Amino acid sequence: MDPQTYTLDTGSPRVADIPFRSTAKQLEIDFLGRIDKPQTGLTEPMILPQGQLEIQNFWPTGKLSHGLPGPMRDVLLLYCPGENQTPFIWRLADPWEPKQVLDLGQLTNHQPLVLRPKDNSYTNRTWNSEGFLGQLMSKKPGQNLIDASGTEVFASSSETIKYIQLLCFYDTLPPPDFRKTGFPYAVSYQRSLGRQLDLTRLLAGRRLIIIGHLEDTPLPIPMTVEGKEIPSTGWTVVRWVYDFK
Questions:
Q1: Does one domain contain both 44 and 104?
Q2: Do 197 and 118 have their domain in common?
Q3: Residue among 230, 224, 195, 236 nearest 66 (CA)
Q4: How far apart are alpha carbons 162 and 168 in whole angstroms?
C-alpha cells in the first residue's frame, strides 16, 4: 500500500496529477461531466440512449437508440409509474446493438419489480411469485462464494451481472424468510461495497430506467497519462434514467 497523501487543486477538479512508480496502483474515480462528445482522454464518445418518449394509456411509448461503443447486453428496462406505485420491468432477450431502434410500444412480457404475496402473510412463501427481484433471489446468486477464499472469490460474469442487479435495488429486495430452520437456510444479502449503485430512491417518481453492460470497451471516462490517451479495455455497466414530466 502507498501511505503517501496527495494534494489536489480543488479550483480545477477536472485535472489531477498522481505520481506513479513502476508498481501497480489501484484507482477509484467519481467523474461528473459529459461523456457524449469527443474530448481529450476519451477514446470513444459514449452516446447514451436518446429519443422522444411519452406516456400513453399509462405506459411509456417512443423509440430509443444509442451510440455506445458496443452492444448493450442483459438489458433491463424499468418503468416507474410514480406516486410510489409498483415499478414494472422488461428484459431484452437479445443485445441492444448501436444505432438499433428500440420501440417501447412493442415491448411485451413485463413483470413487477417486486411483489408482496397475495395474502400478505408470507405463508408457504415462494420467491418466484415475488416479482423480478424474488426470482433473482430464488437463483441464490453468490451461493458458491460462501466460505470461499483466494482465487475462489472471483465470480463468473453471469454471477457478476446478478450482483449488479441486486445492488441496483438493494433497498427493495424482498426480506429473507427467517422462519426457515432447516436446510437450505434463509439467505440474507449484505453489502460492504457498491452502496452508491442503489437506485431505490428513484423508484417513487415517474421515470424510465435502463440498465445493461458493455463488454471489452474502452475506459468510459476521460483519462490521459502524461498528456496521452491510454489504451484500455474492460467491462462497463451502463445505467440511464429518463424523467417524465
A1: yes
A2: yes
A3: 236
A4: 10
- What are 221-243's pLDDT values in tens digits? 888 888 888 889 999 999 999 99
Quick one: 175 and 212 in the same domain? no
Task: For residues 63 and 22, give the distance between their C-alpha atoms in angstroms, rounded to a whole number.
Answer: 49
The reply to whether 130 and 193 lie within a common domain is: yes
Provide the grid cell at 58. 399509462
The answer to whether the CB of 208 falls within 8 A of the CB of 79 is yes
DSSP annotation of 136 reads H
Number of domain units in the chain: 2
Helix (H) or strand (E) holding 74: strand 73-81
The parent domain of residue 41 ranges over 36-110+203-245
Q: Where do the DSSP E strands lie in the chain?
A: 47-56, 59-67, 73-81, 88-91, 102-103, 111-112, 206-217, 224-225, 228-229, 234-243
| Model confidence at 122: pLDDT above 60 | no
pLDDT in tens, 163-178: 899 999 999 988 776 6
Question: Would you state the pLDDT for residue 146?
Answer: 66
pTM for the whole structure: 0.83
The answer on 188 and 215 residing in a single domain is no
227 shares its domain with 242: yes
Coil, strand, or helix at residue 104?
Answer: helix
Same domain, 235 and 126: no
Q: How far apart are CA 161 and CA 91, in angstroms?
A: 13
Q: How far apart are CA 214 and CA 75, in angstroms?
A: 10
CB 230 within 8 Å of CB 210: no
